[in-house]
Amino acid sequence: MKGSMDLFGQAFNDRFNGKVYPFYFEVSGEKYEFKLDRYFRDFSNLSKVENKLINMCYGDILDVGCGTGNYFPALEKRGHAIGIDISDKIIEVSRKMGIKNCFSADIFSFKSDKKFDTITLFENNLGMGATIEGTKKLLRKISSILKDSGQLLIILSGRAKKANYVEVEFVPIYHDIRGEKFKWISFNPKFLRELCSEIKLNMKIISANRYYSFIKISKE
User: pTM for this one?
Assistant: First the structure.
């Protein structure tokens, strides 16, 4: 996945420098443009659910898959926030945007000398688990660095409405360069609740509509 995210990083760097070129995903042989503007939004342009998630954050905060760090001006008002992203090139952009507390790291191998009050997964980022077993591994890893009284806050996309989950393979394309294929998974909230229960985590739906579900996960 890192190679694919580095292609994002190249596109983000170009976008930051005012060079706006189209970025594409290929899914099942079909190619469509993926807009990058959302990763450069300021606080006034965040959605209601993103604002709601940010307002629930407190204490020591870890944002997993922090991207350009565009959430950080708001997160840093809620506590001491740090972010991690798998791509060095994406973190370069966060630095250029003035965000000092974002670092290059893979959550699956991430080590911390402290535990967190709040861990966040914006942008349907729970999908980085890629598979059912990968998601269990991701949730267990997050639980291991979460305080006993802490919370994991997630925004799920509404892609898995009728199925328990949907797995998709993406090929990123930028300047005719094809990045590494990677998998992403989206969950139906009811099925995710069963998954959480299986690994001794509590799940609560804070709000939902046909486009998203905002979810809080905590330890039992």
Answer: 0.95
